Predict the 3D structure of the following.
Amino acid sequence: MSAVRRKPINAPLPGVLVRSCKRRPNRVADEIRREVAALLLNKINDPRVVGVTVLNVSLSSDLSQARIYYSVLNQAAAADAAKGLTSAKGFIRSGLARGLALRVVPNLIFELDHSLAEQEKMERIFREIRAEAVHDDEINDRE
């Protein structure tokens, strides 16, 4: 008599595991973003990180590294903010360990996000173009 191999009753349906694996890093990244932002706002008293905003978090596929993108209100204080975040990295990781249900807390890498500064620069250029267009229209109307 041959033994019939049966799947366990609680086995996932085909394809379900694949979809959940793709979404998990995104969910964990959102939780890390929220937790780091809360820690910066409520727990860290370093004046170098005042005005730091956590914009986005991207995780490696194995959840071992978290790249945290941040911006600062004052671009002149960006270097100080980077030093403050680097010195608070251990405290932030321990806060993540307490706040998140992860087996291993990812290594944190902080990167300054220049997209807001670039956006502001582009908006300033567009305002100048609009102002020049209005000025040119006024000159053409006089002629």
Observations:
- DSSP finds four helices and three strands in the chain.
